């Protein structure tokens, strides 16, 4: 054992005492071997001689190529000793380990928040600086995170590559598909802490919570209106700016909201997805369908459903009284969310 230790010590000593005669012409670094210098020079010249055998990407260092190849092979050699998670990169395992140790070494300069990952800190800092480094090549929008830009680009390309295996519907993002799948399973993981209601999406719960708190923190800069959700404010602002982002592919009409476009397109396609289970009638909009149910003879002994939310009542006058809660200053309250 002593001999092995001595040999290792000699190797370490050589690495420190070796003359570094190979000088980089771009910076002040020097190296003991010509091959090591050549590898370093690629960081300046951006020369990429190592090609991936699965795709057309190339790399300057073998270690980068090996890391990239794992995205194709699915290999995850770095396994957490405390749980069953595994990672393709060593640095990802190091970041993950901080979840177990509680170590948050990256501190925000603007507030007292700390983070276990430098990338998360960088993203957080942009909430203070207002920096949006990821720019859309189709319009003038910019984003704090590249994932947000990727999701936004789909609104231009119209690509829907995530398909539901139960009904065949396609979605532009995996998050939208996951949300849709809950309509099949009936899962409602987001539960209101004030009442017994539960929701399939976090955004729906957030919107619902406004009915309890009454808070409307998002104020319009053009008028006195305020909203419970920032998305609702964004949609409202289009009524001032005139931005109609949703264009009909059948005619020259455009709309402020996506659900308005969907409803309009049905006037071209004649699609009526809302079918009555008591008769052979079908309707293009959910509003018309609920109105039919409430006013027809089918509803005898059944409930009257509100067209603004999912509440229902045993008598029509109870429904009328409830609908007042959806008005603002005795005017109908326009709801900014997509019809199902």
UniProtKB/TrEMBL annotation:
GO terms assigned for molecular function: DNA-binding transcription factor activity; RNA polymerase II cis-regulatory region sequence-specific DNA binding; zinc ion binding
Family: Belongs to the krueppel C2H2-type zinc-finger protein family.
UniProt subcellular location: Nucleus
Domain C2H2-type: start-end pairs: 22-49, 50-77, 78-105, 106-133, 134-161, 162-189, 190-217, 218-245, 246-273, 274-303, 304-331
Provenance organism: Meganyctiphanes norvegica
Cellular-component GO terms for this entry: chromosome; nucleus
Domain of life: Eukaryota
Protein name: C2H2-type domain-containing protein
BP term (GO), one: positive regulation of DNA-templated transcription
PROSITE patterns tied to this protein: ZINC_FINGER_C2H2_1, ZINC_FINGER_C2H2_2
Assigned keywords, A-Z: DNA-binding, Metal-binding, Nucleus, Repeat, Zinc, Zinc-finger
Protein's UniProt keywords contain Ribonucleoprotein: no
